[in-house]
Amino acid sequence: MRRALALARRGWGLTAPNPMVGAVVVLDGVIVGEGYHARYGDPHAEVMALAAAGERARGATVLVSLEPCNHHGKTPPCVDALIAAGVSRVVAAVADPNPVAKGGADRLRAAGITVDFGCEAAAALELNAAFFHAAAGARRPWVTLKLAVSVDNAIATASREPRWLTGDAARHYVHRLRATNDAIGVGVGTALTDDPQLTVRHGRRPRVPPTRVVFDRTARLPESSVLARTARRTPTIVLAEAPDPERVAALERRGVVILVQQGLEAALEALAARGIRSLFVEGGAELSKALLAAGLVDRLIIFQAPVLLGPGALPAFAGAPPAERFRVVERREFGDDLMTVYALRELPSPAPGT
Length: 354
Ligand code: AOF
Ligand code: ZN
What we know:
This protein has 354 residues and is α/β, with parallel strands linked by helices. The protein has helices at 2-8, 45-53, 78-85, 104-110, 121-127, 129-135, 168-179, 188-194, 226-229, 245-253, 264-273, 285-293, and strands at 22-27, 30-36, 61-64, 89-92, 114-117, 142-149, 154-156, 183-187, 211-215, 236-240, 257-260, 278-281, 299-304, 314-315, 327-334, 337-343. 27% of the residues lie in helices and 23% in strands. Strand 10 (236-240), helix 10 (245-253) and strand 11 (257-260) form a beta-alpha-beta unit. Helix 3 runs parallel beside helix 4 (104-110). The model has no long low-confidence stretch (mean pLDDT 96).
């Protein structure tokens, strides 16, 4: 199943709004076929793996990171392909919560195929967190907050001058994280001091470029900012509360979309209403604190760099509310930087059903 999950990851950035899914066909303890869902609209993982296995799929076990689908979507049902191939057992990491696709396990069992669930379930949920979050009826996107901090847990020096804390490897990985999110968000303070591009510039380009989102109560984002100037090329949204109509008009002339609502939760719901199911927030301090205080962060990713920012530095979490011990989802080194992914919320495992 870990192999199936590794195969699934090859669809990184290319399958949304579908999940990343991988499958392996095992006969007599040997892998005889592998496959994955490579791109939205392309054949599903099981179909690719069965094609690779050919006749050796007969009597084999198929391990797949999501319950095989039971519907005619862009492609025919995977359950039909599994039954036709004569497999004897299917092991799925998690059930498919999608109301139009689910029920595959029951169909397979009715055809005499053994079906089991639960192997590597946590990793399978994590890989497609936004998909499961949306399928569970969430009204806001799955929110990941990323911060780069110093050893003294600060995000900027006393002078507040923009400065890179992490090294190249960590920065490249951040681009990979951007590529698997529907939107990338910052607070207007960060937009003003850093004038960022918020695009994917390292690694594989995602199928759909993530929308840039600025949390900007009064729509202060300058028309001369990189974000506003490139809004016609890369979708850009300003989430405002009480914007000056002249500022709105000026930004809209640049192609920026202004959404006006009150409060962070309503702002996130406005994003979800536009099809944004995952949001990757990259600071700064104000927005991070506000999202944490409102309980609107699902995953917190800290990159800690081996630097000290010294007296007067801007603390990453000053004013954030106290919280219970978080579960550590992942910990990984990028050069001398350390990444830790914390779970601030758990995803429920969907129940298999028809
Ligand atoms: C599988 N294997 O590899 C994937 C599945 O529109 P379609 O036909 O591509 O169907 C998309 C839905 O199918 C998706 O929302 C999810 O429920 C399931 N994805 N199922 O058996 C796969 N990618
Ligand atoms: Zn399928």
